[in-house]
Input
Amino acid sequence: MNAAEIKMDLFRKLDSLTGKRLEEAYGVLLNYNNGMSEIDEWHNLTTEQQTAILLGIEQLDHGQGSSHDEVMTIFRKRFANE
Output
């Protein structure tokens, strides 16, 4: 199948969906499309940025880190007088 045939086939299949099934298909397509742009964004980061993100994920996986509430409490105290 060429690109035009694939698009037409997808259109026909999507056009036949209704209600919840259409919403689910839409969600799947959005997730796929967003996932691809996130992959592109990852590759646009520097090696240092990628390393820092991976280190942060590893630390969180090992229970190291602070909750959102803890961080917000610290920053509210620090910047309360400004």
User: Anything to note?
Assistant: Residues 67 and 73 are 10 Å apart (CA to CA). The chain has two domains: 1-44, 46-82. The chain has four helices and no strands. The helical segments are 3-15, 19-44, 47-61, 68-78.
